[in-house]
Amino acid sequence: MAGIYIHIPFCKQACHYCNFHFSTSLKLKNDFLECLLKEIPLQANYLSGAPIHTVYFGGGTPSLLSKPELDKVFEMLHKNYRIPADAEITFETNPDDVNSGVLSEWRSLGINRLSLGVQSFYEEDLQWMNRAHTSGQALRSIAQVQDAGFDN
Question: What is the pTM for the complete model shown?
Answer without folding.
Answer: 0.89
